[in-house]
């Protein structure tokens, strides 16, 4: 067999090796993240539920999903371990920086633009331009209907 016939198989095996290697790294990172969970840590499950860790077992985690409401989850169902600031921002709506106040109506947002518009001359879109008036014949005919030079 020649090298040319073996080349596609070698490339295929190499691609499979690289894909399994990256998947294995992702699995190891997820397992390390789950092993770092401690009591009181905020987590997000793979279903999108946010909760606080109460107990960590070998294969299971006891989560407090609401005050006084506990549920047992498999460790593999934990999608992300969140730091305290992010968990409080998402669950409790706490923000560290002060957000700008948003008005109830949009009129205050357009006041500055309207003030500039009134300074400029307003354009009347209903009037025709004088050049267009001069181009049209006064009698309303275009010269083609009566057998003019351009008629064919």
Low-confidence stretches: none
Strand line-up in the sheet with most strands:
4-3-2-1-5
Q: What's the total number of strands?
A: 5
The class by helix and strand makeup works out as alpha+beta
Helix proportion range: 25-40%
Q: Please tally the helical runs, counting DSSP H or I stretches of 4 or more residues.
A: 4
Strand content: 15-25%
Along the chain, the helix and strand elements come as HEEEEEHHH
Mean pLDDT: 77
Quote the distance from N terminus to C terminus.
78 Å
Shape: flat
Largest sheet: 5 strands, antiparallel
Textual characterization of the structure:
With 152 residues, the protein is α+β, with helices and mostly antiparallel strands. Helix content is 39%, strand content 19%. The chain contains 4 helices and 5 strands; from the N terminus they run αβββββααα. The protein has a 5-stranded antiparallel sheet. A hairpin with a 4-residue loop joins strand 1 (42-45) and strand 2 (50-56).
């Amino acid at each position: 067999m020649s090298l040319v016939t073996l080349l596609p198989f070698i490339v295929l095996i190499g691609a499979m090796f690289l894909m399994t290697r990256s998947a294995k790294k992702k699995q190891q990172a997820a397992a390390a993240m789950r092993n770092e969970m401690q009591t009181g840590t905020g987590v997000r499950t793979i279903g999108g539920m946010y909760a606080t860790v109460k107990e960590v077992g070998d294969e299971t985690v006891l989560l407090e999903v609401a005050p006084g409401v506990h549920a047992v989850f498999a460790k593999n169902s934990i999608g992300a371990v969140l730091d305290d600031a992010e968990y409080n921002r998402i669950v409790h709506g706490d923000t560290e920086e002060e957000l700008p106040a948003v008005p109830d109506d949009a009129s205050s947002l357009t006041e500055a633009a309207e003030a500039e518009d009134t300074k400029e001359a307003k354009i009347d879109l209903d009037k025709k331009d004088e050049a267009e008036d001069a181009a049209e014949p006064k009698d309303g005919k275009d010269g083609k209907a009566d057998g003019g030079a351009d008629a064919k």
